[in-house]
């Protein structure tokens, strides 16, 4: 009796090892995902478009002195129409760029005596494309990520709508699709997708236009009030503007290091 | 042993019940859908890769295109034959749907037949065949 139990355990042990190694071997054999294999089979290669604009770190300089209410409204309308941002009013409003005022855009500027002109000026607010972005840190699915050229991008496919990024963003630059946005899009621009219910969206520094060799839409319609260029290049238009003017950034004490600068 | 008959009858009923879906659907299988190649696609002559390869791997290709475009900012795909394509599902003529103009005929017919899930691409990407109506 004792003998046979011993034998049984031996056989059981050996079989367990056999089964274990079997599955490990198959796992090794199938390593390298299907996609990779498919891509290799197709001999896939990917290229940037020849005309696409590149930078070490994209940055924006907004000259608030040159923007009045009309221009600000036009900039917002242009941006929202080419990105199919729905026009919902009230608490469920969605916005990529919007005119606010000095008091709300720069709450940490404690000077109580600002000029009358600045008090009234419409200050454009948008995603700051921070160098140290809190939204990217909190996103659980890596739907929001930082590109090498500094643009904070969103992969809408991956967004699960948890809204951690909205809690993380200190600038309120992100909007959530509380309802199906489609009925609220006046005219669909076929060159850019829209979003679905349960997805967060925000400004993408017009990544799709940069890839076509165009400047962001807000820059194009701003009549020179908004500059866009490479912050890493000392001779770029933005660096020249930063050298020539006094600029401020939003909520600097938070350490997010925005890439959007304001000439006030 | 007097319940033998009852037991057998019960087993028979059970067997029929379990296999009922097979009996109900017997002989009902529909014909596999014919893929309709749109005029624009016929005109273009060839797809991004060979027809057979696309039929087998289009899902992996699209998945990879999405990642490359969104994450790496690259928009040009160089096929095995060296031809260059704009990587886009539905933005204008120079995209997948630029050639395959009818999503109902080209995508849905097969996806519905094989039961591999309803496509929800058009929740966000613009389907030109529906947008123009």
CATH-defined fold name of the largest domain in chain A? Alpha-Beta Plaits
Give Rg of chain A in angstroms.
26 Å
Taking the sheet with the most strands of chain A, its summary is: 4 strands, mixed
The amount of beta strand of chain A, in percent, is 15-25%
One letter per element, helices H and strands E, the order of chain B comes to: HHHHEEHHH
Overall structural domain count of chain B:
1
**Count, helices of chain A:** 10
Class by helix and strand content of chain B? mainly alpha
Question: What's the CATH class label of the largest domain in chain A?
Answer: Alpha Beta
Unreliable stretches of chain B (pLDDT < 50, length at least 5) are: none
Assembly state (oligomeric): heterodimer
Distance separating the two termini of chain B: 72 Å
Q: Determine the fraction of residues in helical runs of chain A and give it as a percent range.
A: 25-40%
Structural summary, described in words:
The complex is a heterodimer of chains A (about 260) and B (about 130). Chain A contains ten helices and eleven strands. Chain A has about 260 residues and is an alpha+beta fold. Chain A has two domains: about 1-40; about 60-264, Alpha-Beta Plaits, CATH 3.30.70.20. In chain A, strands 9-2-11-10 form a four-stranded mixed beta sheet. Chain A has a two-stranded antiparallel ribbon with strand order 3-4. In chain A, a hairpin with a 5-residue loop joins strand 5 (about 145) and strand 6. Chain A starts with a helix and ends with a strand. Chain B has about 130 residues and is mainly alpha-helical. In chain B, strands 1-2 form a two-stranded antiparallel ribbon. In chain B, a hairpin with a 5-residue loop joins strand 1 (about 75-80) and strand 2. Chain B is elongated and about 80 Å long. The N and C termini of chain B lie far apart (about 70 Å). In chain B, about 20% of the residues are buried. The mean pLDDT of chain B is about 90. The interface of A and B includes residues 48, 49, 156 and 211 of A. Strand 1 of chain A pairs antiparallel with strand 1 of chain B, so a sheet runs across the interface. Chain B: InterPro entries: DsrJ, Multihaem_cyt_sf. Chain B: This is Putative sulfite reductase-associated electron transfer protein DsrJ. Chain B: It comes from Desulfobotulus alkaliphilus.
